[in-house]
């Protein structure tokens, strides 16, 4: 399926499904589209129930929390086999997640189609090493609902250098990585630079720029405030924004801390303030990293508490329209473009 040729009604249907519920007493809930929740990892590799996992993203909380959509990465741990993640492991994760989505309300199956009353889903890769040298596999994964493509996780692979390895942080894309990235954008898939080394991130953003398509960082913050290699430099945020992409704010304290490893709600607000001033509100989104083994900031410990961030952003002076852009509209612009 070519996502860039999806009919207009597809995206319009998605937006209609995201219309806020009728106002109740108290502050309105802002709809949420989260670009990164590791339910697949908890369910497939940690033996946790899909509907509740560790408690950070429980199915029964989603309606109350205002969640209208979520991207679920098909993450495969490095130690899954002696040779690392294999194609059969991606297949296994996909089969597990698809089966769980089928039987777990309120989730819809992956894609931008109409899903009134349901939580829309999309899939992503957080490490696509098994596809190295196999770009012919890509159309199948796009058709299955993989929307964001991160080539690498915390260790270098056949495609790319990782931000997680100090010795090779300047290692960029391999020839196979460039080939796969170009295949992804040609199919209308979205490149995701979270976890990539600085050099690989620069190269991925450049591939998106040349192709004229958005590139995202699904779950990363600004390094200018939180000096961690998983975060983005201001130059990278500017380049990524110039493609029309978004930065999904990560709630892991380690990626928000200005020094040390602890952070709080005010650090999330500071990230919003910084990125908004740098590139504009159109390039901010949410990529909580819930269920990914994170240590969330106090007060934002699970999806049911995320409206606390909306309240803090109102107090910061953001308009309701801006908070909506961060919480779901910018993410949807990238996930379901109206073409
Ligand atoms: Zn991650």
Summary keywords:
11% strand; 11 helices; 339 residues; disordered N terminus; alpha/beta
Description of the structure:
With 339 residues, the protein is of the alpha/beta class. The chain contains eleven helices and nine strands. The protein has helices at 8-17, 39-45, 62-65, 87-103, 138-144, 175-186, 198-211, 234-242, 265-279, 307-315, 320-335; strands at 32-34, 67-73, 107-110, 119-126, 146-150, 190-192, 215-216, 247-249, 284-286. The strands form two sheets. Strands 1, 2, 3, 4, 5, 6 and 7 form a seven-stranded parallel sheet that branches. It has a two-stranded parallel sheet with strand order 8-9. Helix 7 links the parallel strand 6 and strand 7 (215-216). Helix 2 (39-45) crosses helix 4, helix 6 (175-186) packs parallel to helix 7 (198-211) and helix 7 (198-211) runs parallel beside helix 8 (234-242). The radius of gyration is 18 Å and the shape is globular. The two termini are 13 Å apart. Bound molecules: zinc ion (ZN). Zinc ion is lined by residues 126, 194-195, 219, 292. The site of zinc ion (ZN) has 5 residues, from loops.
Topology:
Blueprint: H1 8-17, E1 32-34, H2 39-45, H3 62-65, E2 67-73, H4 87-103, E3 107-110, E4 119-126, H5 138-144, E5 146-150, H6 175-186, E6 190-192, H7 198-211, E7 215-216, H8 234-242, E8 247-249, H9 265-279, E9 284-286, H10 307-315, H11 320-335
Helix pairs in contact: 2-4, 6-7, 7-8
The protein binds zinc ion.
């Amino acid at each position: 399926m070519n996502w860039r040729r999806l009919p207009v009604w597809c995206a319009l249907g998605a937006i209609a499904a995201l219309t806020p519920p009728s106002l109740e007493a108290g502050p309105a809930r802002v709809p949420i589209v989260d670009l990164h929740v590791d339910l697949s990892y908890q369910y497939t590799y940690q033996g946790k129930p899909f509907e509740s996992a560790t408690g950070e993203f429980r199915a029964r909380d989603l309606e109350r929390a205002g969640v209208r959509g979520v991207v679920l990465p098909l993450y495969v741990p490095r130690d899954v086999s002696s040779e690392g993640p294999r194609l059969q492991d991606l297949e296994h994760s996909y089969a597990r997640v698809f089966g769980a989505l089928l039987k777990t309300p309120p989730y819809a199956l992956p894609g931008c189609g109409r899903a009134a009353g349901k939580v829309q889903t999309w899939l992503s890769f957080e490490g696509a090493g098994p596809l190295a040298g196999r770009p012919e596999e890509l159309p199948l994964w796009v058709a299955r609902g993989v929307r964001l493509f991160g080539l690498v996780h915390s260790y270098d692979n056949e495609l790319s250098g990782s931000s997680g390895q100090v010795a090779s942080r300047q290692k960029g894309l391999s020839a196979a990585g460039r080939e796969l990235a170009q295949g992804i954008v040609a199919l209308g898939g979205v490149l995701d630079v979270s976890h990539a080394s600085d050099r690989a991130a620069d190269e991925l953003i450049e591939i998106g720029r040349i192709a004229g398509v958005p590139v995202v960082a699904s779950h990363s913050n600004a390094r200018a405030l939180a000096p961690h290699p998983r975060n983005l430099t201001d130059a990278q945020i500017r380049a990524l924004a110039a493609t029309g992409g978004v930065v999904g704010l990560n709630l892991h304290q380690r990626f928000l801390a200005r020094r040390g490893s602890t952070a709080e709600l005010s650090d999330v607000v500071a990230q919003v303030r910084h990125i908004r001033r740098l590139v504009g509100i159109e390039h901010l989104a949410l990529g909580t990293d819930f269920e990914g083994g994170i240590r969330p900031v106090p007060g934002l410990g699970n999806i049911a508490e995320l409206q606390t961030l909306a309240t803090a952003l109102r107090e910061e002076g953001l308009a309701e329209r801006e908070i909506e852009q961060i919480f779901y509209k910018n993410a949807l612009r990238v996930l379901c473009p109206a073409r």
